[in-house]
Amino acid sequence: MVDVCIVGAGIAGCTCARELSAYNLEVVVLEAGYDVACGSTRANSGIVHGGYDPIPGTLKAKFNVEGSKIYEKLSEELGFEYNRCGSMVVAFSQDEVQALEGLLERGRQNGVEGLEILGQDAIREKEPNLSKSTVAALWVPTGAIVNPYGACLAFAENAVQNGAKFEFYSRVCAIERADGAYRVGYEVLSEGNEPVEKSLDAKIVINAAGLASGEINGFVSKDAFEITPRAGEYLLLDRTWGGAFNSTIFQVPTKNGKGVLVTPTTGGNMLLGPTAEPRESADQTQTTVDGLSSVLNAAGKNWEKIPSRDVITNFAGLRASCLEDGDFHLYEPDDAPGFFNIGGFDSPGLTAAPAVAKEYARIISERLGAEKNENFNPVRKPVKHFATMSDEERAGAVEQDSRWGRVICRCECVTEGEIVEAIHSPIPAMTIDSVKWRTRAGMGRCQSGFCMPLVAQIIARETGQDVTEIRKGGLGSKVAVGRRGCLDRLPHVVIDGGDDE
């Protein structure tokens, strides 16, 4: 029997795993996907919200502000990308200026520091490319950006380094309570085979299943809540425009959310979006012509003459929303003691997650009488990227391992050494997409048009698989359907740590 079973390896599950690993507890995370952050966490805006928007007194308000305050320290401990660039909520009319004043007061009630309303001169000084139609803006100096996948991975890897375990391709399909504990039934998924049924017993279960959290809660409790998937469609611009704005630019929020934003990313791109449209299922992650057009039109209010020809990709993420009340569902049901929900964890869930995790870790460790883990190490070594190294650092890396000097992704200047390091990390990158999210190989203008075959070769070599078994992402996404008879007779690049041919 394990002490804690966490269902889901998104930002909620990974932060909980990391906080619980600070105690002498056996923690197992079950994730249906092939990697951390396969759901809502990965496909979001990457904003650490200041906390001016949630209604005072709600769980969103409490944990948003608490999470925002600790993110910078966590980024220093765990080595993930974080930039406190600030954010603006812009107004285009006097009616919207009144809305800004309401947000200012709300933020102060929530305990957000440094809020102020700026006039046109101050706005132009901070953001010269912002639309000249802007008449005022709420300045939020505590607003920040992170790489959401990178942050999630950092929490997960540090949890593993401190004793937690992650099991991927493990879809929870049943939970039963008996004798004061829970039996968690799950299916181990594999390519082309029937699922293998397994189970584990746990004293405590944390439901961090995102879009499936309502269903998971229904396994053990009659206190139901319903999750509505809401699609957010995005456009990503080439890094050429990474300096167009210094901070995140919001529009006045509506009942559907914070609206379409324009924001820099930690990777140096500009991101536009999202929309907020309900969808029927958690599988509907496609983008639409209407959705992407509405992103361009709405973002155009902030950024006149958007260089749309430099959009390099688009994508959609689904948010797990509880539309009936709009707040987080963070509670232990009366009819399911020891079962802790993290439901309806849409925006500002990314911001709130570390604070929620600390609270749950405190409650659970006290419940189980767990002592502190004396060997707990809160520090994770930062991941090095060749593109951001100094000349001296590059020379040193190549001297130690020549693979650090072999560029695989030319758009983003990602080397073989980085890719190998990702494959052999505490949570190994076993797919092309996992490598992409960790190293940026394939994130540039050509969107992996040149580097994908080479990345597949490296993964195959390092894992002992045939290249035809390598997947882009989840099950059913193999990048090669077989071998052509003449393939091995053609001139090609041999990636084996030796000389190129």
Describe what this molecule looks like in 3D.
This protein is of the alpha+beta class and 501 residues long. It has 3 domains: 2-40 and 149-226 and 325-368, 3-Layer(bba) Sandwich (FAD/NAD(P)-binding domain); 82-144 and 228-321, 2-Layer Sandwich (D-Amino Acid Oxidase, Chain A, domain 2), CATH 3.30.9.10; 386-489. Helix content is 29%, strand content 22%. Strands 1, 2, 9, 10, 11, 12, 19 and 20 form an 8-stranded mixed β-sheet that branches. Strands 13, 15, 16, 17 and 18 form a 5-stranded antiparallel β-sheet that branches. A hairpin with a 5-residue loop joins strand 15 (261-264) and strand 16. The longest helix has 20 residues, at 59-78. It is globular and about 60 Å long. Mean pLDDT is 94; it is low at 487-501.
